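Example (one chain per record):
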Amino acid sequence: MSDNNYVQRRRSFIFCPGNKPELLTKALNSGADMVCVDLEDAIIPQHKDISRSKTLEAFKTASVPKGIETLIRINDINSEDGFKDIEALSSASNLPSGLMLPKIKTAEEIQKLNNRFIDANININLHVIIETNQGLKNVWEIAHSCSSIKSLLFGGVDMSADLGCLGDWTSLLYARSRVVHAAAGAGIDSIDVPFLDLDNMEGLREEALLSKNLGFSGKGSIHPKQIEVLNSIFTPSDAEVSYAKKIIKAFEEASDGLVVVDGKLIEKPVLRTALKILANSKN
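Predicted structure:
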């Protein structure tokens, strides 16, 4: 696979609290594909300012392993702390590769933020958390709102509270499906909410498999010990990798957007899936 076809792995992510930058190195070497420094839920109001400063300072010296995507989860962009986060990022010299955006409800919010970054000549990826009823209602438009969006994340805890439903798989299946549908339509990744029972590794495995089968690209973690399971579940099988390689090779040799692989007609949109499978493989 050429560099032009590089696809970022997003099988797993882990949070690191913004007020403890010394944990960033540990998180970066945890095995997670995505490492997110949290300025939102993990930080109490009186520590927001110092956490913001510590986080941006930590990124100046952080040694990021190859293939690891670094993020900052900022505060609600409609809040005072969110405004301060964006102001600080706009003038920072060392940025992460992306921002995780909580409480997003409309496409217009994303477009306004993205335009601000464009005006400031800041190139940064956006990862949008869908965790409110209004955000779920507008999820298709949000997913298609700008090319800077690389994934939708399902915020199951806040979503269940907003909907007034239980937080189990069955109760949130419709909401999860809407997020997967919108992300797939926009050609971006979808990432499921972390499994919160730290001692139930079998439950983690079962839910991660359900997430994969539904169409999610990956799933969050709350502890490094969950990451190996997540990476294993979301890593394609040898058979899937072999078939993906056939598809990629066929399109590299094709003169149009249709190819035949193993007697089956394959159209160009399937190529992205094949590239993603190869990116997530062990090979």
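Caption: The chain is about 45% helix and 15% strand.
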